[in-house]
């Protein structure tokens, strides 16, 4: 079993962990750091010195971040494999993945270790769950026309997976159309109930509900516990929570949430390198039908074992969870402290931007985690998804700002409304200057746009006057 011995600048921490099946308890052995030993600002900057310093990187939500100490741990795993692959496979790989699974189990408060499998990403987890639903249609356990309910905000690749697995097998999809901006969880609950009612019309059964925990675009924290409870009351067979952003970003507790399946990436908000996610499958739910979509010689040995070997590949990202936990525990309050500080900071920066631009936030603070939606000035003229992507590209390529832009179509009767929103993130490496740079870049675009508009109007007036004088002389 490998031990981890990382140098964190001036903080030298030697953290031993031992495997003992389900009794392994890494979280009960958190690093005991005094207040003077917590990570410093300069150490944080050193951990992320590989980031491009010319870019205001306020899009942690898309790809996450990985500190240098975790990259170093990953590199050591890679070297161990390359030195002697057979030794690595037979003596280290499975133990290392077991250790990572055990840490994840405790992080998310799962009841049993065998409820936790490690997969590449949430897209893989979605394929595993939806593949099971497709087989149920094909084998006659579900009837043609039975329903999957999902949120209108569901991530695009998950929607495509539902199309590929469920619709193709004979199921139909009902979307809960959520408004945006949002002011309360009641709006979400009301629309979700309506979607379940539509799903049960004409005698159909809702076989699966796919619920986001933190939606991607627009970004909103969904009241998953309440929606899962509603699903149980309404007789929904299974509930799958797509929580790509959740772990390290908002509260995650399997026993409290109560879903049948729950998945989250560790490379977004838990400082792991890409790509690693966990898939929780509740032990009381049928697990025998869950299989990794890549079939290996471990097929039939349970999803966790199947997922731990899908052929020769780089497994190092799945082995550095102990190093990521070690990094997290260098911060005051550990992951809970990081989540709170990120939330408070992103709200503060979102409010600063909205005030600077004369706009508003897309949700109240309690409905966001470490990401928040900020309205952009209407004069930017975002009138389509294509406009949103063009603005995002211009900000990246010409103004040194990386941030996703969301297009929100105007509703019936709306005039002059905000149709463009920026999704800003906050992670430990971010500085206030990142958000000031974004603010100033948008203000520059607004000024240039208004100047261009003024120039166009002047030229148009001149042309009209010129045309008018010509007409007058000719008619005289």
Helix-strand layout with pairing:
Elements: E1 4-8, E2 11-15, H1 41-47, E3 56-57, H2 60-63, H3 68-83, H4 85-107, E4 116-119, H5 122-138, E5 147-151, H6 156-169, E6 172-176, H7 185-199, E7 206-212, H8 224-233, E8 238-242, H9 254-257, E9 261-265, H10 266-269, E10 277-281, H11 303-308, H12 316-319, H13 321-328, H14 334-357, E11 371-375, H15 385-399, E12 401-402, E13 405-407, E14 420-425, H16 432-475
Parallel strand pairs: 3-12, 5-6, 5-7, 7-8, 8-9
Antiparallel strand pairs: 1-2, 4-10, 9-10, 11-14, 13-14
Helix pairs in contact: 3-4, 5-6, 7-8, 14-16
Question: What features would you describe in this structure?
Answer:
- InterPro entries: Aminotrans_V_dom (IPR000192), PyrdxlP-dep_Trfase (IPR015424), PyrdxlP-dep_Trfase_major (IPR015421).
- Keywords: Pyridoxal phosphate.
- This is Putative L-cysteine desulfhydrase, chloroplastic.
- The chain is of the alpha/beta class and 476 residues long.
- It has two domains: 232 residues, Type I PLP-dependent aspartate aminotransferase-like (Major domain) (Aspartate Aminotransferase, domain 2), CATH 3.40.640; 124 residues, Aspartate Aminotransferase, domain 1, CATH 3.90.1150.
- Helix content is 45%, strand content 13%.
- It is built from 16 helices and 14 strands.
- The strands form four sheets. The chain has a seven-stranded mixed beta sheet with strand order 4-10-9-8-7-5-6, with helices on both faces. Strands 11-14-13 form a three-stranded antiparallel beta sheet. Strands 1-2 form a two-stranded antiparallel ribbon.
- It is globular, with a radius of gyration of 25 Å.
- The chain starts with a strand and ends with a helix.
- The N terminus and C terminus are likely disordered.
């Amino acid at each position: 079993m490998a031990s981890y011995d990382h140098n964190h600048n001036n903080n030298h921490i030697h953290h031993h962990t031992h495997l003992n099946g389900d009794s392994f308890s890494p979280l009960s052995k958190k690093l005991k750091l005094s207040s003077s030993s917590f990570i410093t600002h300069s150490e944080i900057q050193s951990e992320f010195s590989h980031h491009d310093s010319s870019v205001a990187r306020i899009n942690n939500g898309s790809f996450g971040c990985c500190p240098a100490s975790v990259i170093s741990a990953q590199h050591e795993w890679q070297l161990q494999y390359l030195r002697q692959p057979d030794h690595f496979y037979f003596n280290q790989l499975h133990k290392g993945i077991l250790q990572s699974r055990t840490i994840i189990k405790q992080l998310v408060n799962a009841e049993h270790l065998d409820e936790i499998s490690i997969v590449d990403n949430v897209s893989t987890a979605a394929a595993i769950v939806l593949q099971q639903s497709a087989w149920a249609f094909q084998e006659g356990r579900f009837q043609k026309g039975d329903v999957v309910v999902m949120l209108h905000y569901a991530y695009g690749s998950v929607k495509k997976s539902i199309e590929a697995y469920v619709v193709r097998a004979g199921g139909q999809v009902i979307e809960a159309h959520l408004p945006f901006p949002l002011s309360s969880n009641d709006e979400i609950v009301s629309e979700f109930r309506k979607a379940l009612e539509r799903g049960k019309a004409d005698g159909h059964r809702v076989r699966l509900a796919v619920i986001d925990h933190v939606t991607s675009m627009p970004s909103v924290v969904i009241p998953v516990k309440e929606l899962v409870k509603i699903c149980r009351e309404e007789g929904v067979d299974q509930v799958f929570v797509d929580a790509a952003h959740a772990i390290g970003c908002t509260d995650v507790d399997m026993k409290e949430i109560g879903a049948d399946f729950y998945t989250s990436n560790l490379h977004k908000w838990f400082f792991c390198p890409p790509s690693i996610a966990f898939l929780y499958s509740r032990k009381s739910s049928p697990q025998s039908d869950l299989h990794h979509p890549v079939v290996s010689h471990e097929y039939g040995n349970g999803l966790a074992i199947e997922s731990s070997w899908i052929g020769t590949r780089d497994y190092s990202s799945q082995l550095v969870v102990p190093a990521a936990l070690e990094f997290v525990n260098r911060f005051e309050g550990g992951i809970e402290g990081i989540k709170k500080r990120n939330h408070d900071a992103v709200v503060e920066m979102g409010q600063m931007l909205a005030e600077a631009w004369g706009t508003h936030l897309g949700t109240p603070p309690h409905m966001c985690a470490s990401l928040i939606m900020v309205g952009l000035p209407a004069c930017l003229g975002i009138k389509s998804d294509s406009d949103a992507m063009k603005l995002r590209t211009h900000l990246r390529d010409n103004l040194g700002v990386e941030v996703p832009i969301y297009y929100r179509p105007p509703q019936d009767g709306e005039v002059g409304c905000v149709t463009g929103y920026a999704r800003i993130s906050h992670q430990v490496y971010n500085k206030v200057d990142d958000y000031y740079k974004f603010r100033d870049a948008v203000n520059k675009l607004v000024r240039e746009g208004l100047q261009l508009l003024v120039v166009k109007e002047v030229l148009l007036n001149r042309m009209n006057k010129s045309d008018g004088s010509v007409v007058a002389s000719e008619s005289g």
